[in-house]
Amino acid sequence: MRILFVSAAVVLLDQFSKLIVKGFSIPFLKIFYKGMSEGDSFRVIGNFFRITFIENPGMAFGLDPGFNMKLWLSVFSLAASFGLLFYLYSIKDKNFSLRLSIALILGGAVGNLIDRMFYGVLYNYAPLFYGKVVDFLDFDFFKFSLFGKTFDRWPIFNFADAAVTIGVLTLIIFYRDDQKEIQKPDLNTESQSQDVPS
Fold first, then answer.
1. Which of 1, 3, 2, 6 is nearest to 107 (CA)?
2. Three-class SS of residue 186?
3. CA 162 → CA 90, 95, 157, distances in Å?
4. Does 193 fall in a domain?
5. Are 25 and 32 within 8 A, CB to CB?
6. 55 found inside a domain
7. Angle at 68 between CA 67 and CA 73, to 5 degrees
8. DSSP codes joined into one string, 41-69
């Protein structure tokens, strides 16, 4: 299942970029990297693209599910990641667009799951499963309203979010082809069943 390299690449890019933004320390190697302070921002392409460090309490668009729901959100994300891995294995012989989209979604889900599960413990601010998601990609696309909130800029996101979004868009774009591929009978199984005498 070489397609899992796509998922692994998403996780590595996502986690590396988050550690660069948030900072990290490895005391026994005497490595200390400060990173940015929450709320810090600097321009990359004028006002259109900035790196802005925020920590998301748990859900998309910065929605806070509340402390009691964070555990369930983390557990659900963990179960969904295993479900996606199993599904990816079950479609290993299907077309590339379907496998690529699921691999991207899986990589993005795991990237954010690592934040939720471990960052609270690693950065000493919350117990296991109660961490916050690091976001930093800040674009000025257009003003819009969602769930009663008005956004002057696109909500700040990370590479894991981008991978999930691209994966979902790939699924939508190639939906018809993927459906035909999923419903296509396995010719090897059919030929074996015809060879068995009744």
1. 6
2. coil
3. 25, 22, 7
4. no
5. yes
6. yes
7. 90
8. EEEEETTTEEEEEEEE-SSGGG----HHH
Instruction: Write down the pTM of the prediction.
Output: 0.84
Residue 191 counted as domain residue: no
Where are the extended beta strands (E) located within 92-158? 133-139, 144-146, 149-151
Q: Which burial class, exposed, middle or buried, applies to 178 when counting CB atoms under 10 A from its CB (0-12, 13-18, 19+)?
A: buried
Number of structural domains in the chain: 1
pLDDT in tens, 9-22: 999 999 999 999 99
The secondary element (H helix, E strand) that includes residue 24 is strand 24-26
- Rounded distance between C-alpha atoms, residue 43 and residue 82, angstroms: 38
Using alpha carbons, select from 128, 132, 77 the residue that is nearest to residue 106.
77
CB 156, CB 137: distance < 8 Å: yes
Is residue 195 domain-resident? no
Range of the domain at 63: 4-185
pLDDT given for residue 79 in this prediction: 97
Query: How far is it, in rounded angstroms, from Cα 10 to Cα 108?
Result: 7
* Token pair in block for residue 177: 């082809």
Catalytic residues: 135, 161
